[in-house]
Write a structure and sequence with these properties.
The complex is a heterodimer of chains A (553) and B (362). By secondary structure, chain A is mainly α. The two termini of chain A are 33 Å apart. In chain A, a hairpin with a 3-residue loop joins strand 3 and strand 4. Chain A folds into two domains: 253 residues, MetI-like (MetI-like fold, Orthogonal Bundle), CATH 1.10.3720.10; 204 residues, MetI-like fold (Orthogonal Bundle), CATH 1.10.3720. In chain A, helix 19 packs across helix 21 and helix 22 packs antiparallel against helix 23. The radius of gyration of chain A is 24 Å and the shape is globular. The C terminus of chain A is likely disordered. Chain B is an alpha+beta fold and 362 residues long. Chain B is 23% helix and 36% strand. Chain B has two domains: 229 residues, P-loop containing nucleotide triphosphate hydrolases (Rossmann fold); 115 residues, OB fold (Dihydrolipoamide Acetyltransferase, E2P) (Beta Barrel), CATH 2.40.50. The mean pLDDT of chain B is 90. A six-stranded mixed sheet of chain B has the order 6-7-8-3-9-10, sandwiched between helices. In chain B, strands 13-12-11-14-20 form a five-stranded antiparallel sheet, with no helix packed on it. Chains A and B meet through helix 9 and helix 10 of A and helix 1, strand 6 and helix 2 of B. Bound molecules: adenosine-5'-triphosphate and magnesium ion (MG). The site of magnesium ion has 3 residues of chain B, from helix 1.
Chain lengths: 553, 362
């Protein structure tokens, strides 16, 4: 009550909270509600028969089973590779650390399906390895589970890497040294101290990667073949069969395990982490024996080689006349990027540039409200704004077409729907950056300003905002990257008038115009790098690592 | 088997990464720690204390020099085979293990049978006054209790040498005093060779058999706490340990263990060894060795410049011949302290004076 009265005394604050609450409801909750409603209401009556149809026959249950299987395997493989990388860099003192770090963060800023494209270029039916090295004698079967595990592991292990790097670096060196000191061998140190202390991080990483894999759309739509997964099936139900209730039901089925994993991660695993450092940490770090170091170096080189091979193939592919048939070099695909693709590029950059600053500001305001203010429904606001992070893009996309296709909220076909989607899907990035920054600022500074007579709005603008600017810009950078590379949700809301480059690339891949798709992808990556570079120059430093932590949820 | 620690001409150079230049952290350190004694390494931050300790533990390899325990050369022995136990400033307790598992860790690693582990952990916890906390996690203990667990864990494996790296600096002042007495008591009872790093001189003074004062990677002086305090060998040691007044002077005459030193205020006779006429020196006068006398009496005449009242005692700054002397006097209850610009006499016993070499020109 007291809180309420305090807020009513500050009309600007009250209005801000109101506007944000309404927008969160409209653009986060309402679309999800529509998906749910579509899946259980038929001719105005409640029914579960859509779910019955989808879950009764073994054949129909395949996508659920497949998605869970893929998610589990990718979570395991990605976490293993990520931990290996993190351990090698944080403990084994391997050479070329910077190089490994950069490579391991690169997949975060590239559109995910680029890896699928590379997989096809290398291992597909006309693939370089399949044709040139094996003369077609060996079919690696990349369309399906195998290919997906490969590309999704490469695409998502960076998240695991960044989580585990953070965990390993936070372990007080004195712990491992104590263990060694008390007689443990290097292996026993790892088994009894390092590994147990990594477990909360590993659990977190497994859950996050599981969610990322389940929500992935760009890779499976290219590479899943007959291995049907939920995200793609939901999309096909809606765009192919125009079966809205079936698509919506699949979306809900996709949402459930994702939400469970998200909530487990947020409310259970994150509580289990050990905060250990209490004093001045030791100056040194326990390293490993030369043999282990060499082994880890070789493994890191192997993974890095694979990443380089994949991206290198895309670069090469973009300069080849006709992949699989005519390998003469040409720049014609780049010419067409700007001739036929100019519109896509323009639309993408315009929409992303519109959405990014709004996302950043909205994120900061919500962060400020959540960290510093007391008001009714605060916890709900926090949870809701974080929700879009956990909800797979496919679900959100379906929600948007269901929610905004009639008056008074007729938005389909407009630029607004794409921008709104961008904003509300990425706002958690901005919030997380803001919360992290705000928690470092002593509230006393703000209280001092308030004592001097500044209102909430003024305090925010003159005191808080300047202090959180760096976090603000790294939030901006990351949400811009996410806009530029988004596909799973926006594929439902693009239109003839407003289209995006990622969707265009997907079309090219489907038409087997691989080199053209490669050229598009590289131009996209170049724009992203350029934008990151600009922001970095602007702020001095954009922490790629921080972006990763945010991605890590 | 003797567990004396011997360091022979130990050097440690940290190579700078990417051309940042290298740091000489430890420079030609030779030292003997007698079996069963406690030696503190004392010095300002960055003087190389921790690095010496870590070379004894085996966490860092010396760039040059050798480390011995008893007659065994352990320079190349891996840390886990040295049987040294370190107590860290951050305690280094395993947060995922109970107190019992923390203390028993070293025994489990050595595959000691479980019943024996139980018995030994129990008696060790009793020794450090923590009986009954077996089932708790480190996070459920206070700072002082955590420190005791760390001590118990280090002691239980019966190490040949116990190493401490500023183990008390995370505790509040009162607990620190109590814990250092306890550490000393345990160390003497178990007769365990110990090397103790600190930058707190009170700690070093109360704990040690021998104090090693270090500066910029080098040993400045080794001696008992009394020796270090009353007969420092360098200006650095004299200045680092306690408070002191330094008066620039020149030796004029030496005879029978005494030197005639000329200073701005006149001539004094000082107990001195190894000085020759013409040597430039600093004359060291501890504030508590100076007394105040009524104006006109005493050795020198001066005026009070400032007074700092500290309850049972008072620090005066006295201007004597253009130089400020710090004087510490006991302050009896009820007496009126002297005020600024009051004239006073300054008295001291020449036997309490001490000389250290002075470099450069007077
Ligand atoms: N692993 C390392 N790499 C590079 N330089 C180091 C390393 N460890 C210590 N040094 C440097 O060696 C010097 C001595 O460090 P050391 O930690 O031994 O000092 P210390 O006397 O323990 O200081 P403090 O009282 O602050 O703990 C310092 O200049 C430090 O920066
Ligand atoms: Mg130190």
């Amino acid at each position: 009550m007291d809180g309420l009265r305090k807020i009513l005394r500050e009309p600007v604050l009250a209005a801000t909270i109101g506007v944000i609450a309404v927008s969160l409801f409209l653009f986060v909750i309402y679309p999800l509600f529509k998906v749910f409603q579509m899946s259980v209401v038929e001719d105005g009556r409640f029914t579960l028969h859509v779910y019955g149809d989808l879950l009764s026959k073994a054949f129909e249950r395949r996508p659920l089973y497949n998605s869970l299987l893929l998610g589990t395997l990718v979570a395991l493989a990605g976490t293993a590779v990520g931990y290996l990388f993190a351990f090698a860099i944080a403990r084994a003192d391997v050479p070329w650390k910077r190089f490994f770090r950069v490579l391991a963060t690169f997949p975060i800023i590239s559109p995910p399906f680029v890896l699928s494209l590379a997989a096809i270029l290398l291992l597909g039916r006309k693939g370089f390895i399949t044709r040139m090295l094996f003369q077609g004698q060996w079919d690696p079967h990349i369309y399906g589970l195998r290919g997906l595990i490969l590309v999704e592991t490469i695409a998502f292990f960076p998240t695991a890497f960044l989580i585990m790097l953070g965990v390993l670096q936070a372990i007080d060196p004195a712990l491992e040294e104590s263990s060694l000191n008390l007689g443990a061998t290097r292996w026993q140190v790892f088994r009894t101290v390092t590994l147990p202390l990594s477990i909360p991080g590993l659990a977190s990483s497994l859950l996050v990667l599981f969610v990322e894999s389940l929500a992935d759309f760009g890779n499976p739509i290219i590479l899943s073949g007959n291995f049907h997964v939920l995200s793609v099936q939901a999309y096909l139900h809606i765009t192919g069969m125009v079966d809205f209730s079936g698509g919506a039901a699949l979306a809900v089925i996709l949402l459930l395990p994702t939400l469970v994993a998200f909530l487990l991660q947020k409310y259970w695993v994150s509580r289990k982490s050990y905060v250990t450092v209490t004093g001045k940490p030791s100056p040194g770090r326990l390293s490993v024996d030369p043999f282990t170091r060499r082994l880890l170096t070789v493994l890191c080189l192997g993974v890095s080689g694979l990443i380089l091979l994949f991206y290198g193939t895309v670069v090469f592919g973009s300069f080849v006349t006709l992949w699989g048939a005519d390998y003469t070099l040409t720049v014609k695909h780049y010419v067409s990027v700007f001739l036929i693709g100019g519109r896509y590029l323009r639309d993408t950059v315009i929409l992303a540039s519109l959405a990014t600053p709004i996302t950043g500001i909205l994120g900061m305001i919500i962060a400020f409200l959540v960290v510093r203010k007391q008001f009714v429904g605060k916890g709900l606001m926090d949870l809701t704004s974080m929700l879009t992070f956990a909800v797979p893009g496919t679900v959100v996309g379906i929600g948007y077409i269901l929610a905004f296709n009639e008056r008074p909220l007729l938005l389909t076909g407009t630029a607004a729907i794409i921008v709104l989607l961008f904003i509300f899907r990425n706002v958690p990035v901005g919030i997380r950056a803001g919360v992290a920054a705000l928690q470092q600022i002593d509230p006393a500074i703000e209280e001092a300003a308030t004592n001097l007579g500044a209102g909430s709005g003024r305090t925010f603008a003159t005191i808080t905002l300047p202090l959180i600017t760096p976090a603000f810009f790294s939030g901006l950078a990351y949400s811009f990257v996410r806009c530029m590379t988004a596909i799973s949700a926006v594929i439902f809301v693009v239109s003839g008038r407003w289209n995006l480059i990622t969707i265009a690339i997907l079309g090219l891949v489907e038409n087997a115009d691989l080199s053209q798709a490669a050229a598009f992808s590289l131009v996209l990556i170049a724009i992203v790098l350029l934008a990151l570079g600009l922001i970095q120059v602007g702020v001095g430093r954009v922490a790629t690592s921080q972006m990763g932590y945010e991605a890590a949820g | 088997m003797s567990n004396a620690v011997r360091l022979e001409r130990l050097c440690k150079v940290f190579e700078g990464r990417g051309g940042t230049g290298s740091v000489v952290a430890v420079d030609d350190v030779s030292l003997e720690v007698k079996d069963g004694s406690l030696v503190t390494l004392l010095g300002p931050s960055g003087c190389g204390k921790t690095t010496v300790l870590r070379m004894i533990a085996g966490f860092e390899a010396p760039t040059e020099g050798e480390v011995f325990i008893g007659d065994e050369r352990i320079t190349a022995l891996p840390a886990n085979k040295r049987r040294t136990s370190m107590v860290f400033q951050s305690y280094g307790l395993f947060p995922h293990m109970t107190v019992f598992d923390n203390v028993g860790y070293g025994l489990r690693i050595r595959k000691v049978p479980a019943p024996e582990i139980r018995a030994r952990v129990r008696s060790m916890l009793e020794l450090v006054g923590l009986a009954g906390t077996e089932g708790r996690l480190p996070s459920q203990l206070s700072g002082g209790q955590q420190q005791r667990v760390a001590l118990a864990r280090a002691l239980i494996t019966e190490p040949r040498v116990l190493l401490f790296d500023e183990p008390l600096s995370n505790l509040d002042a009162k607990l620190r005093v109590q814990m250092r007495l306890e550490i000393r008591r345990l160390q003497q009872r178990l007769q365990i060779t110990s090397v103790y790093v600190t930058h707190d001189q009170d700690e070093a003074m109360t704990l040690s058999d021998q104090v090693v004062v270090m500066h910029q990677g080098r040993i400045q002086q080794v001696g008992t706490p009394q020796e270090i305090y009353s007969r420092p060998r360098t200006l650095f040691v004299a200045d680092f340990i306690g408070k002191a007044n330094f008066l620039a002077g020149t030796v004029r005459h030496v005879e029978g263990g005494r030197a005639d030193v000329e200073i701005a205020q006149g001539r004094v006779q000082v107990p001195a060894e190894g000085f020759r006429p013409g040597d430039m020196v600093w004359l060291l006068l501890r504030p508590e060795a100076i007394g105040l006398a009524p104006a006109g009496a005493g050795r020198w005449q001066g005026r009070i410049a400032a007074a700092t009242y500290l309850g049972s005692e008072i620090f005066y700054e006295v201007m004597v011949g253009g130089q400020t002397l710090l004087v510490k006097v006991g302050h009896p209850q009820g007496a009126t302290p002297l005020g600024a610009s009051d004239p006073v006499g300054v008295a001291f016993d020449e036997g309490s004076l001490h000389l250290v070499p002075r470099e450069g020109t007077a």
